[in-house]
Amino acid sequence: MTAYHRLTARFTRIATVNEAAAMLGWDAATMMPPGGGAARGDQLAVLAGLAHALLTAPETAADLAAASSSGEAWQDANLALMRHAHTRATAMPADLVEAQARANSACEKVWREARAAADFARVVPQLTEVIRLVREQAAALAPALGLSPYDALMDGFQRGIGSADVAPVFAAYETFLADALPRAEAIQAARPAPQRPAGPFAEATQEALCRHLAEAAGLEPAHARLDRSAHPFCGGTPTDVRITTRYDPEDFGRALLGVMHETGHALYERGLPAAYARLPVGEAAGMAAHESQSLLIEMQACRSDAYLSWLAPLLLERFGGDPAPYHPANLGQLWRRVGRGCIRVDADEMTYPAHIILRFRLEQALVAGELAVADLPGAWNDGLRALLGITPPDDAQGCLQDIHWYDGAVGYFPSYTLGAMAAAQLMAAARRVLPDLDAALGRGDLRPLVAWLRREVHGRGSLLGFNDLLRAATGKPLDPADFTAHLTARYLT
Amino acid sequence: MTAYHRLTARFTRIATVNEAAAMLGWDAATMMPPGGGAARGDQLAVLAGLAHALLTAPETAADLAAASSSGEAWQDANLALMRHAHTRATAMPADLVEAQARANSACEKVWREARAAADFARVVPQLTEVIRLVREQAAALAPALGLSPYDALMDGFQRGIGSADVAPVFAAYETFLADALPRAEAIQAARPAPQRPAGPFAEATQEALCRHLAEAAGLEPAHARLDRSAHPFCGGTPTDVRITTRYDPEDFGRALLGVMHETGHALYERGLPAAYARLPVGEAAGMAAHESQSLLIEMQACRSDAYLSWLAPLLLERFGGDPAPYHPANLGQLWRRVGRGCIRVDADEMTYPAHIILRFRLEQALVAGELAVADLPGAWNDGLRALLGITPPDDAQGCLQDIHWYDGAVGYFPSYTLGAMAAAQLMAAARRVLPDLDAALGRGDLRPLVAWLRREVHGRGSLLGFNDLLRAATGKPLDPADFTAHLTARYLT
């Protein structure tokens, strides 16, 4: 058995432990009674510690030192990714890994109560501990990776992109938005307001429809579940994907489009190269790459005129009532509407990057120690005012709205907007390659698009870095111009 | 840090890994899409392997050798149980542990299909492999424990009881049954047949009622869930208990009494001593002890005249319809009815031991290599004919009916009848100590009974062995006379 083969066996074992943890994380968000929270935190901490111990064992270092390039691209990429994971892990003390898992779990639990009560003070002690540990994590990782502390955190979500790449893209977008948003609002205001379908819409009907659409997009029920959670997500494993949503009885669009978003994530997991399952090169290429897939399905495909022309009569059939609001043009205006709102997950695609820019700047300040957790609500509200000219009525609609920081995920937020930009770029490329794409979408048929994504993105796993993946699929590295062109075509013409 | 304290830290870690596995096992039976089965088998195998590695690490052996008696009963019992677990684990090669986890998971999956199709041949290859590995397991354990191969398996479910204790108790029961069953049938036949409440009964109504009764018995929703599975069970962890059932639209009694049975298990888990959580001495005292708790709640308490007098009007209120079948006396006759049936889990308490005696003898023969898996259906049908004079119409109602063997659990079945006997003995003792017990049951109030069980059984964890636990709670070791007295009073007078 060669050093490389011993490494693949070891990384397979690590990935299998992480699969167990992923399932327990899904359970905690969907099924677990509240009294199970403390024990669940311990379980996740112990599994994280065991995976960390496997990764940092002396045998792993010895095999990594002994293994050499094979000249085969997948194997070499796999080995490089193993080295990268090992570098990240050995930079982190085992007790810090366990302390983070425990603190994140405890904080997430209190966050659920704090958000329900719009009471930020309630979670300050837990979030302070989470951020303190995140700063320890960043300080430990930065020298090992040769990155700044914040970039060392970003690297954990999307390799090869740092704040120096992101900051100018975001600054340019801020400039674009300052011009585009008032213009889009004016165009919108000059039209009659779209009509909302009249609710309430039974949860069971919404759920059945969500299942139908996810399956029609290619998500197989034998390998996936749809459940409910406070914050929608896609979890589980490639052969057992677990997506979640929440249902608004007055607005079926939230769950429906949310489920299509998570379906985009789920299709990515389902399309990863099975031959490299449980190996680093067989994983998704990063969080920005993942978000490009969810936004491509939700924003680019499902909100297109073509798809809506197929969806609208189906919705009318399921929900009944006055047919006027179900006209495709009306649904298009309803679901492609700009506006200045406080909630990130409800934001339209034009203002969404403003929410990300806010979080990107605040989390950099938290990591740098320039912003105290107790001062977060004020900084949040100031920042949102500067970007969108609005102020949250309470912290539940402000700095308490997202799970990420409360679960220890700092450096993740930029991925959303990088993903939105990549989604536009991939869709533009797919249109060039698939001339009948709109005709297929007009039949509710996502198969040609998903087949192209499987070939160009999903099936490549982590063989290529983010920009190389885009170059292979679209002929160029990340180019925000496709995103602003998409927004201009959709909202400014 | 003393050797004993290092051991407690290590065993806590092992128990936490096992908690994760318990949750994944629950998920596999209740939530998992079928396509997740292969990956789940790997996950359970890897977790079992990691727990085994922690238990068999050289440091564990060194600390066990160094640790000495403290003179404190709980600590000494804990240490003795750690030694016992270590002896069992070191006798088992790590690759056998993983192979069993994998084979059991694969077999259980095929069993679900085979049972649905009443096609034993479909699962023969998988069950043959499971039994082959069980025999390897028994051969590895027997010399280390100084027990026969079959007793070494039994020891894994209930310490301190072997086939030499069980065989004469079972032989005596066979004699009792040969006389008692025809007499009970004759008494029953001389009465008018009880009326069945007319269905169908909506699953949602049944489920809500099951939840209500479980909660009324003291199972807190903050620490428990009720879900559906093909085979009812109680899983999860002491702070997050997961019970399951299945609903028959024509007979609400199956789910209702089944849920009270699982509630008995769940209350035991909830009542274990929290100060010794995740330590061997803080665990339940064994499977026979566990079954005594489920049967005490289901058979002794919930099927009593007193409890039924409270339950009957509640059932009528929930299900409506003709009130006559809801008379407590009618429900009593319906739910305390002897009969010769093929299905163990549907058996009345008098014939149930016959099903156990059958399995006890067959699994001894399988382990001894005297019975081939392919010959199981014939041996099963011959055995049932000899004990109850009936023959299963197909293998789904014969040797395919129970999950146990297909999941690698051999040596478990005797625990059911030992538990039934212990339940009668504990109930007799509780009646002596709690003179108002029937009055409380007549108000649907299980709290005095559960409080007594908590003190006398649950709260003792594994401090005492099975017979010592019964002696502490009832003044004598296991005495089958309380069980036959209970049956005589209920069915022969």
Lay out the secondary structure.
2 copies of one chain form a homodimer.
Chain A: H1 3-30, H2 37-56, H3 58-66, H4 73-90, H5 94-116, H6 124-145, H7 149-155, H8 163-189, H9 203-216, E1 224-228, E2 234-237, E3 240-245, H10 252-271, H11 287-302, H12 305-319, H13 328-335, H14 352-368, H15 376-388, H16 414-433, H17 437-441, H18 447-456, H19 466-474, H20 481-491
Parallel strand pairs in A: 1-3
Antiparallel strand pairs in A: 2-3
Please supply descriptive tags for the structure shown above.
homodimer; 493 residues; mainly alpha; 3 strands; globular
Main structural class of chain A: mainly alpha
Strand segment tally of chain A: 3
Poorly predicted runs of chain A? none
Report the helical percentage of chain A: 55-70%
Anisotropy-based shape of chain A: globular
Approximate strand percentage of chain A:
under 5%
What Rg of chain A, in angstroms, do the CA atoms define? Answer: 22 Å
Compressed to H and E, one letter per element, the order of chain A equals HHHHHHHHHEEEHHHHHHHHHHH
- Strand line-up of the largest beta sheet of chain A: 1-3-2
Mean pLDDT of chain A: 96
Distance separating the two termini of chain A: 62 Å
- Greatest chain-chain interface? A-B, 34 and 34 residues
Quaternary state of the chains: homodimer
Biggest beta sheet attributes of chain A = 3 strands, mixed
How large is the count of helical segments of chain A?
A: 20
Written overview of the protein:
Two copies of one chain form a homodimer. The first copy, chain A, is mainly alpha-helical and 493 residues long. Chain A has a domain of 153 residues. Helices cover 63% and strands 3% of the residues of chain A. Chain A is built from 20 helices and three strands. Chain A has a three-stranded mixed sheet with strand order 1-3-2, with helices on both faces. In chain A, 48% of the residues are buried. At the A-B interface, helix 1 and helix 2 of A face helix 1 and helix 2 of B.
